Amino acid sequence: LAVDQPTHWVTTLAMCESLLELRWVVSSVLEGGGSPPVPNLADQQWRLLQELVPALRTVRLASSFLSEEPNAPVSALLPCLHGVARLLGRQLGECGLQAARSAIGRMRGAMQKRWRIGEGEGEEVEEEGEMLDSPLVLGSFLDPRFKELRFLSPDARSRLHGRVKELLSAQRDEGEEDLGEGEGSPIMVVVGAHGNNQGSPPPPPPSPPRQSIYDILLGEDPTERMPEIQQQLENYIAEPLCKRSCSPLDWWRGKELRFPALARLARRYLAIPSTAVPPERAFAAQESPALRRRATLAPEHLDQILFLNQNCDFIEGLRGGATGAVERRGGQAHARETLYQSLVSFESQAWLSEDRE
Fold first, then answer.
1. Which one has a higher pLDDT value, 39 or 169?
2. How far, in Å, CA of 43 to CA of 37, rounded?
3. Per the database record, which ranges form the HAT C-terminal dimerisation domain (predicted)?
4. How far is the C-alpha of 266 from the C-alpha of 289, rounded, in Å?
5. Residues 6+ apart with CB under 8 A from 40
6. Would you say residue 131 has pLDDT above 80?
7. What is the Cα–Cα distance from 121 to 86, expressed in whole angstroms?
């Protein structure tokens, strides 16, 4: 049997799984009698475990998904959350016990409230401006694995494409301004009608571009009048999806020359991590009361502890005098522990007195 550890929430699932797997062994031991007798779990409690384990497995599956290296960018967060919400909704409908439905409903409701996820696929809950500017949605679009944005409606996807065009245009304008302000930029000299070239003839009008056989037979090519950044965006949307196991950063490294403007935008959004800590520790409780007491130490008391710890050997050597080195070593550990416990208890009492005041 696995034992639940309060500091790691994943161990709760391991405990429930092992308990269900060895149910007949546990029941036979508990019902076999003992001194003192231990009551077995009721049938409703076993059923509650069976209905809660799939929901806990879904959460563990999401944490494992976000722990993989290709899913480190923030682009994988929204597809993962919508998948978890969909699975929890399905498991919620299959539950027969009210306690299990309440637990799974609270899990799903808290996740939807935190991330503003709709109850159905494609349902928009966020406001329009906030959704279009969200790094989560933009990162998912710039990820070649999730660029279809199946969790959004077609109208929301089209508006997002327009928002990406605006970002690309702003990025191009910033690049042109940086190029114009840089050292060594070309200087254009415009000579007016009354300049030094009054006697020179006016420049000839530009000749019309030569039409190809495709233009003559099929008409004007619409891509010729399309801006370059818009062409890159349309080609990226038409690009086939890559495998979900592929790293989006490696994909953009290979496509940087083909989509230079989009690659710069993807570098900006895919650099955001999906989580700041490992997912298995994201919801962990405090490790121990001792660490909480240690965290309440004031800076001056921490300096005193470090000072005494560094000089403890010297102090013990002075106190021991001519005694042997073995005896001095034996008392050093006890002295350090006594000193640390005294300071920690003193700091805890001071902290409690401040709270009471």
1. 169
2. 18
3. 233-311
4. 44
5. 26, 27, 30, 31
6. no
7. 8
Task: Using the structure block, give the residue that is written with the tokens 């497995």.
Answer: 57
- Would you call 100 exposed, middle or buried from its count of C-beta atoms within 10 A (0-12, 13-18, 19+)? buried
pTM for the full predicted model: 0.63
Tokens of 5: 């550890």
HEC-encoded secondary structure of 289-356 = HHHHHHHCCCHHHHHHHHHHHHHHHHHHHHHHCCCCHHHHHHHHHHHHHHHHHHHHHHHHHHHHHHHH
Q: For residues 26 and 30, what is the distance between their CA atoms, to the nearest angstrom?
A: 6
The tens digit of pLDDT for each residue in 42-80 reads: 889 999 999 999 999 999 899 889 888 899 899 999 999
Q: Which residue has the tokens 């077609």?
A: 154
CA distance 266 to 261: 9
How far is residue 191's CA from residue 201's CA, in Å, rounded to a whole number?
Answer: 13
Rounded to 5 degrees, φ, ψ at 154 are -60, -40
Question: In sequence order, what are the beta bridge partners of 5?
Answer: 8
Q: What percent of the chain has pLDDT above 70? A: 63
The answer to whether the beta carbons of residues 270 and 75 sit under 8 Å apart is yes
